[in-house]
Design a protein that fits this description.
By secondary structure, this protein is an all-alpha fold. The protein folds into two domains: 1-195, MFS general substrate transporter like domains (Growth Hormone, Chain: A), CATH 1.20.1250; 212-424, Growth Hormone, Chain: A, CATH 1.20.1250. The chain has helices spanning 5-35, 41-47, 50-68, 77-99, 103-130, 137-165, 169-188, 204-228, 233-263, 267-295, 297-321, 332-360, 368-396, 402-417. The chain is globular, with a radius of gyration of 21 Å. The protein starts with a helix and ends in a 23-residue tail after the last helix. Residues 7-424 form the Major facilitator superfamily (MFS) profile domain.
Length: 440
């Protein structure tokens, strides 16, 4: 199949919809758990790991399952068609469950929503390398992350206005947009022809049995390679991914709580401040991919980590120096946070855009889904650890520990990246024009 940037942009709508859901979920669910159900920050942190638990348990399996699937519409699309509508429905029911003030009903709703999100996340991610050659993957991942950043931006900025009208509106809006975005991907982006096998009957039991054996066997084999290989680049990059996602997920989970309970401003304003981070990430995602392709992924990721570390330290000093006088976006402290987060989003784009291509370029085409699952195994394992770990610090010491906590793990990630020696593009001289996209 001919590579086209236009297809990557349309595929990006899948990430656009997913990012809307997760941005709203991480911004407001911790507030619901603490305000409506009066749960501690540690318990809130544990509940916020449900999506990550599903990811650790299911994404390697689902990545390998979609690798083996063959249908008339391809190997990734069946999971999108099953997972996206179901997840959208459950997400829209979250505010309904809150109004009943039943913790059991609320937990059941978010558990089902998280399960259905896990069902199609890994296949959507693996779709990109399916239709993208190795030398274009940083650039393509930049486009994908641009679309994801656009989704988060819409969630944070539009979500504030909707939340201020009615806390349920962002959930209804997010569910509808996510569903429509993924339907667009299914209808418009074709899978490679070799994965579209019309008329072939599938034995679901046989497929699940083979995939279960393959996926967990492959995960075991891949993890063995990670930890026993003489060359430690894969271990180093996965360790770095684990560390920086501990940092980022702690911020994403608790920043709106930090804004409300420590800075003394409305949670919707805190979410808006995160939106500035997403705005910068969105604007810089595509350039970050081309920078990684031009100057090397490891160098680009390291520079991004240095930028984010500096921003976290500066934000901590601002938060400790003075508190906002109001929740207005024109308040000097709020504006300072937004300015810092704008720069921080650039650094995060340099990190996030170039990491997945590093991992998938350390394997063969036949194992792209499995290595995508391996990437998510480490990133989601980090997200599994981060909320309760950070929540425990916040319970014991207070919200003032949030930014230093994140900074420490960003520093450790930067150190781990210095041991990575593989995953960059091997190019011939004279390929400068390859960095210029053919917008067909």
């Amino acid at each position: 199949m001919e590579f086209k940037y236009s297809r990557i942009f349309i595929l990006g709508f899948g990430f656009f919809g997913i990012s809307i859901i997760w941005a709203l979920y991480n911004a407001y669910i911790p507030i619901f758990l603490q305000d409506t159900f009066h749960l501690s920050k540690t318990v809130t942190g544990f509940i916020m790991t449900i999506d990550n638990l599903f990811a650790v348990l299911l994404l390697p399996f689902l990545g390998a399952l979609s690798d083996m699937t063959r249908t008339r519409i391809g190997r990734r699309k069946p999971y999108i068609l099953l997972g996206a509508p179901s997840a959208a429905l459950m997400f829209a029911l979250i505010p309904v469950a809150r109004t009943h003030e039943s913790l059991a009903l609320f937990m059941g709703t978010i558990i089902l929503m998280n399960f259905f999100m896990a069902l199609f996340r890994s296949p959507v991610v693996a779709f990109m390398p399916d239709i993208t050659p190795s030398e274009k993957r940083s650039q393509a991942n930049g486009i994908i992350n641009f679309m994801g950043g656009l989704g988060a931006l819409l969630a944070y900025f539009g979500g504030k206005a909707l939340y201020d009208m009615n806390y349920a509106y962002p959930f209804y809006f997010g569910a509808a947009i996510m569903l429509l975005a993924n339907i667009l991907v299914v209808l418009v982006v074709p899978e490679p022809e070799e994965y579209r096998v019309p008329g072939k009957k599938i034995s679901i039991r046989k497929l699940l049995s083979e995939t279960s054996h393959r996926s967990f066997g492959e995960l075991k084999e891949n993890l063995k390679d990670v930890f026993t290989s003489h060359e430690k680049s894969l271990l180093a990059v996965l360790l770095a991914i684990f560390l920086w996602f501990i940092a980022f997920n702690s911020l994403e989970t608790f920043f709106t709580s930090y804004a409300k309970y420590y800075l003394g401003i409305e949670e919707s304003t805190g979410a808006f401040m995160l939106g500035v981070f997403s705005l910068s990430f969105m604007l810089f995602a595509i350039p970050a991919g081309f920078i990684g392709g031009r100057f090397g992924r490891r160098r680009t990721i390291t520079l991004g980590l240095i930028i984010v570390i500096g921003i976290m330290l500066a934000a901590y000093l601002v938060g400790e120096g003075s508190k906002p006088e109001s929740s207005s976006l024109s308040d000097p402290v709020v504006m300072t946070f937004m300015g810092l987060f704008f720069v921080g989003g650039m650094g995060w784009a340099m990190i996030n855009v170039n990491s997945l291509p590093m991992v998938v370029d350390m394997t063969t085409e036949e194992k792209l889904g499995g290595y995508t699952g391996l990437y998510y195994f480490f990133s989601q394992a980090a997200n599994l650890v981060a909320p309760p770990f950070a929540g425990a610090f916040l319970d014991v010491i207070g919200y003032k520990t949030l930014l230093p906590f994140a900074t420490l793990f960003f520093i450790l990630a930067a150190l781990a990246m210095q041991f990575v020696r593989r995953g960059d593009i091997v190019r011939r001289k004279g390929d400068a024009l390859d960095y210029v996209p053919d917008m067909d």
